[in-house]
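In this section we turn from sequence analysis to structure. A common task in structural bioinformatics is to predict how a protein folds when a small molecule is present, because the ligand can shape the pocket around it. The inputs are simple: the amino acid sequence and a SMILES string for the ligand, here zinc ion. Study the lines below before reading on.
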Amino acid sequence: MIIDREQLASSFALLCETDSPSGEEKKIASLLKEIFSNLGADEILEDDSARATGSDSGNLFIRFNGTGKGKGIFLNCHMDTVEPAVGVKVVRKGDTFYSEGDTILGSDDKSGIAAIIEAVRSIRHNFIDHPPFEIILTTCEEVGLLGAKALDPSMINAQMGYSLDSTGFGLVIVGAPASNRLDITVRGTAAHAGLHPEWGINAISLAAMALSITPQGRIDRESTVNFGTIHGGTASNIIPEQVTIVGEVRSHSIERLDSLTNQIENTFHKVVNDWQDPSGEARGKPELTINIKPDFPIMKLNQEDEVIQRVEAAAKSIDLNLEYKIAGGGSDANIFNGYGLQTAIIATGMTHVHSTDEQVDLQDMVDLTRLIIAIVCRQE
Ligand SMILES: [Zn+2]
């Protein structure tokens, strides 16, 4: 297996220095189409998800026909990055890559993309036989997995695949929670706070009462709850008529996800229904609207699953030890698993992601490239 370290380093730097904040992936998508076309891809498609996601680009599907026997797989990375993402300048100290410190680096997720490019280059260059494989590059992952949610799973030929998108190295993520998003609006009655406080019903106070008795933080080994934003009120001399709070429930157990969501719903209903008019002069009654939307489905893989067996065998063949872990976050892999396509997440070596301290070691990307080649070319 011949990996060209410097080639890998330079394509990584080129990807990082091609700005691609969420929703503006067109430039990097064009670059990637060109790179994979030069590498002899048999098919390169861009889907029409841009309409749904609001991005200036669709998701990319890049296919290589098989040259050997064995089951096809897909590899997945996201093309977008979090902010501050514009004007990235890659700094290399020894074999570690950083940004100049005023932007992110973009190793999330370009370390994965660079490793795929180098793996494909090596496979083609050395005429290594392989089953068919696909590369699925999504948009808008960092702003709600929008590209993955908007793609048409019937465009994917393989039954299973790997997302190269996690911090650390030698790590495979086999489980991630499902999440519900909760939009809760409490409506009271506006009134002048100095002249007619008795007429008003304070929506903020009611929401605060409900929040103060709602379970939050880490609830149990499998579940978390958070309320992250609150908007309401207009001025200090007006009793606030309306407040909207947005929160989420996550759990590795669907039963717990449902029961916690219900518990929060019931708590808000009870507080609003139990409201009592202290003066008997309030205008109207408080009201409540709760919108619950599944945000992403659960991801739960077992050691016996083919997708895990294949990565384990591939790692063994190159003397790499893997650790298997459960994650607390949602990613494109949740969406693919929700489509019925078993997808494991492989760590790429990136660290300190979503910050200007983000970094990645070249050696980890080299080892990731070796692992990708071993997975893709596995013929059994
Ligand atoms: Zn990522």
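Residues 254-273 form the longest helix (20 residues). As an exercise, try to locate the residues that line the zinc ion site and compare them with your own expectations.
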